[in-house]
TrEMBL record:
Keywords from the named record: Membrane, Transmembrane, Transmembrane helix
UniProt entry tagged with the keyword Membrane: yes
Residues that span the membrane, as ranges: 15-39, 46-68, 100-128, 135-156
Record-linked InterPro entries: Sm_multidrug_ex
The name this protein goes by in its record: Ligand-binding protein SH3
Length: 165
């Protein structure tokens, strides 16, 4: 049975939220509700640990992906395929998309939907060659936006359930 709240049950609640936020499947979309409802952490503390946990892999991904890319490009089979796909994505991105890239990255990371978030946003920043100094603050803003939305939804859900019971 899939119960991500139990993965880090032996950790202090703050660190459990931090580590849950690092996982690409859960990110902070699961960590915030778990921190607030399962671990009974204060909202502000849950928000801070979730944001910091979600930010940690972003730093690593943005710094390491260029090196992984260079290594994969040198591989005979994967190198050509990857190079073609990245070139296609970059060509599609140029033009009108380039104008709205910064806003799009923040919104893409900030809207808490499946397959969006810091992990995918970091990959998008790499694919579209957004430098670390520009990508990191944009992804950070998106993470803060997502954490705030998930926190508000969680609080509203708790209030609505309490009202009905």
């Amino acid at each position: 049975m899939f119960n991500s709240a139990l993965w880090f049950s032996n950790f202090p609640p703050e660190w459990a939220v931090f580590f849950l936020s690092m996982i690409p499947i859960t990110e902070l979309r699961a960590a915030v509700p778990i921190g607030i409802t399962v671990y009974d952490l204060p909202v502000w503390k849950t928000w801070v640990f979730a944001v910091m946990g979600n930010l940690a892999p972003t730093i690593v991904l943005l710094l390491v992906m260029p090196y992984v890319h260079d290594w994969v490009i040198k591989q005979k089979f994967l190198g050509g395929i990857l190079q073609k796909k990245l070139q296609d994505a970059e060509n599609k991105f140029s033009g009108n998309y380039a104008k709205y890239g910064a806003i799009a990255l923040v919104v893409f990371v900030g809207i808490p939907l499946p397959l969006t978030g810091a992990w995918t946003g970091s990959l998008a920043a790499f694919i579209f060659r957004i430098p670390f100094k520009k990508a990191f603050p944009l992804i950070f803003l998106g993470i803060c936006m997502s954490a705030t939305l998930v926190t508000l939804i969680t609080q509203f859900g708790k209030g609505a359930i309490g009202w009905f019971l």
